[in-house]
Design goal:
The chain contains 4 helices and 29 strands. It has helices at 2-21, 374-381, 406-418, 437-444; strands spanning 27-31, 35-36, 42-49, 57-62, 67-73, 78-82, 85-90, 98-107, 113-125, 128-133, 137-141, 185-193, 199-207, 215-220, 225-229, 236-240, 243-248, 256-265, 274-275, 279-284, 287-292, 296-297, 304-310, 317-318, 359-368, 387-392, 395-403, 425-430, 433-435. Strands 2, 4, 6, 7, 9, 10 and 11 form a 7-stranded mixed beta sheet that branches.
Length: 450
Amino acid sequence: MIKPLIIFFNTVSVFLFSFFFGDTPVTISGNFPKNANVATEFTAEVKINKGSIGGFAKLQLEVPQGFTVKEQDSKTGNFSFAANIAKIIWTAMPSDQEFTVKFTISADASAAGPRTIASKFSFVNNNNKEVVEMTPAEIMIGDGTSAPVAASQTPPAETTPPANTTNPTTSNASFENPSEPNSNILCSRTITDGATANEYNVEVKVKKGGIKGFAKYQEVLPAGFNAKGGKTNGSSFSVSDGKLKFVWVSLPTEEELVVSYILEKTATASADAKLDNGEFSYLENDQSKKIKMPVDVIGAKAGSSTVAKTETPVQTQTVASEPTTQPVTSKEPVKTEPTTTEPAKTTPKETVAKKEGNVAYNVQVGAFKNAIQSDVLAKKFNITETIKSEMAEGYNKFMVGNFNEYKEARSHRENMKQKGCNSAFVVAYNGAKRITVQEALMITSQKWFK
């Protein structure tokens, strides 16, 4: 009799603890007007309940063509607006469990009609990226008489180029002639003896020049070694699958970054273990680049320091990298020949990054709240090819084409526009998962163009 009672009370205790002290789910909701006049500003609010999470986070507001978004209250976040996407990035979220950010939005005459605004909140939880989406808001701009047939489509995210848009000063920059100059990047790694005979202190310094936005330092741990974080310099530190990472969603303003970690040697470690897969990757001039660190033998020479450098013209390898919305995503490093510390062998070899994933580009021709048959679109826009559909975010979305090359998808989009589907835009999938075109371009090592 006593044993069942003990089990019962334990079960009740666990339930009550989870109820009162468990993690609060993260939620996001919007407050938008139902109607707005053309060329008139209105206030929009997005409420975020962040629960118990903290650290890096990003709020993204996607608006249709013809809309302009300005900052009203970003709750100490870094605001930017470019290519129909408004972003607020926090290196450390507000302390309040629930907070509301505000925007000032206006729409020009080209945006008249029913329009949809989407928003999503990205954050890091237990070293994993998570995303919560807002129920899309529908707004009637003007009297709606000039609305196109596919006006309820989600905004053309394809127009977001693979470039840094976290800095407000770059919102009017030409992506064909980037305003950011080439940077002289200098990276160094120093290894010193640790507090015990089996520990080593590793310090990495990066003179980053004028680069901004997303960046990452990654090191593949030698067999038999563990690592724990030290200085992070505003980054998010993680260790997973034999790799350690320092990830910056938005780089600090200081010219030199300094991060550190402690290597812990176990009984299975080799006597001549090396650090030979370190790299610093970043975005510059619409391209992902990386600097490969030289090889260091652990413990061979305490206090040693090695340097990797890139100068104009840039000689770093162009590689596929994670996008700015995924700060803690794991990728296998591109295998390149390491630069040795001997002066005669320090010239890096340029390589072509291999394509990864199962990425395909489609052209979206419509997205509707109400049920609609694909043959309606086929008839209206004279589409003879197969029309695929999916239900996502409360919309019936319709796509045509299946391309491995972004350039081919863009050409097909222009063909659809010539048939009268003016709202057509390119979308991307990695397998069955829909991703942004920016992510797809980075994964497939392809360039964005107008």
